[in-house]
Amino acid sequence: MDNLEKILNNLPKNKLSRRADLKIKFQLYRLLVSAYLKRLFIFNHELSFFNKGLVAAMVLVLIFSATSIFAYASDSVVPGNIIYPLKKAVEKLEQNIAPSKTAKIAAYEKQSVRRLEEAVNLSQKNSSTTPAAKNVKTNVSDNIEKNISEVVDNQQAVLESINKLGDYQKASAAAFQAKEADKAKSEYLDKIAEYAELSDDNQMLELVNQAQNIINNQKYKYQGEELNDDEKEDEQEDKGDNHRGRDNEGDQEDNEADKRSNNGYNKEKP
Amino acid sequence: MAIKQDNFLAYYNQFKDKIFNYFLYRIGFDKALAEDLTSEVFVKALKAFASFDENQKFQSWIYAIAHNHLINHYTRSGRATVPLEELEDFIPDASDNQFEEKYEAEQVLQVIDEMADSDRDILRFRFVDELDYREIADILCKEEGAIRTQVSRSLEKLRQKLKKIQEK
């Protein structure tokens, strides 16, 4: 067979029937469409999942923020309350992010006043004399004591902060603010003492007296030198002058403290 | 991806008849079965199209899929021999002066069908599917030179076999 390659090259070539062609095309189109839809579904699914996650996160953030704001702002959130730790955390944050030393001192004072407000609220609850509330009373008393202790600790922190403030005028201004806050603290301590008297809580009265003594006898110093209100006024008039040599300032401060002490803060035990 | 899949439909239109013929010559000229296998191969190819390298020749790629699919088909159903009646139906009726050519074509196909697997495959790739040596080498994962030699030898074997038949 001489023409073998010619025969091989001319072997008949059939065509796919039109019916089979349409059938295959239909299958291919179906696959393509399902692939498109699948991709679309996956995208939507991911998107919806992403959205759901985002919404859930936003709701959680909103709830957390609202609760934190409420806890921080409300005096009714007192020790023992479920969101009280949140309140403390926000206060701690406020203290940590304070832009200056003066702001930090102000934050301490603010916290001290808040602690005493809480203590007054707790004392009000504690004045209940029902026997069933005995256990509750013990816990409340503990919390009041904790609050007063925190105020005393803050007092020490403020004292140290003012002493190391690094600027006499600022220290003087901070001491003035601290004295104002101390007046408020004294008033709250008075209220707590009244409630302690009502409930014959001698231990509480003693604690309140001690706190009163500390607050009323507080002498704010700057680099070891005592500051007072008159000194601040003098400093405002004579900015930058040497602040040394004011001998009677400490005496005036002492006198004021004594006056407050004699106004019934140092209550005797019944 | 969409553009790539649109390309696939263009490839399908270009190679559908070639793949159909590929199967037709290898499964005993059973048209219905060849259509089914062609359909299966293109569906398989579409599913794997994401892995197709555009720098590669599509013809080599689709023939490789068809070749593997045919091997799977043989494993499942066994290899079909070419019945003479099917061959007569397959090769179109010729006029009187072409009758001899028709007879010779039937004879050639029948002899190829009886040859060893390697010779049969190589001759079909070269003359039925009209693939060049490079493409056959890609499909069978061999060197182009080896394919060239093997085609030459298989062709010679075919020639000898036909010669023996004619001498009888």
The count of DSSP E runs of length 2 or more, i.e. the number of strands of chain B, is 0
Q: Identify the CATH class of the domain at 1-80 in chain B.
A: Mainly Alpha
Q: From the helix content, strand content and strand pairing of chain A, which structural class follows?
A: mainly alpha
Q: What is the tally of beta strands of chain A?
A: 2
General form of chain B: globular
Strand content of chain A: under 5%
What is the helix content of chain B? Answer: over 70%
Compact description:
Chain A is mainly α. Helices cover 75% and strands 1% of the residues of chain A.
Structure description:
The complex is a heterodimer of chains A (270) and B (168). Helices cover 75% and strands 1% of the residues of chain A. The longest helix of chain A has 56 residues, at 18-73. The radius of gyration of chain A is 38 Å and the shape is elongated. Chain A has helices spanning 4-9, 18-73, 84-96, 101-126, 134-163, 168-198, 202-216, 229-237, 249-265; strands spanning 221-222, 225-226. Residues 239-251 and 257-270 of chain A have low confidence and may be disordered. Chain A starts with a helix and ends in a 5-residue tail after the last helix. A two-stranded antiparallel ribbon of chain A has the order 1-2. Chain B has 168 residues and is mainly α. Chain B is 76% helix and 0% strand. The radius of gyration of chain B is 17 Å and the shape is globular. The mean pLDDT of chain B is 84. The A-B interface holds A 1, 3-5, 7-17, 20-21, 23-25, 27-28, 31-32, 35-36, 39 and B 1-2, 5, 8-9, 12, 16-17, 20-21, 24-25, 31, 35, 38-39, 42-43, 46-47, 90-92, 101, 104-105, 108-109, 123, 126-128, 155, 158-159, 162-163, 166.
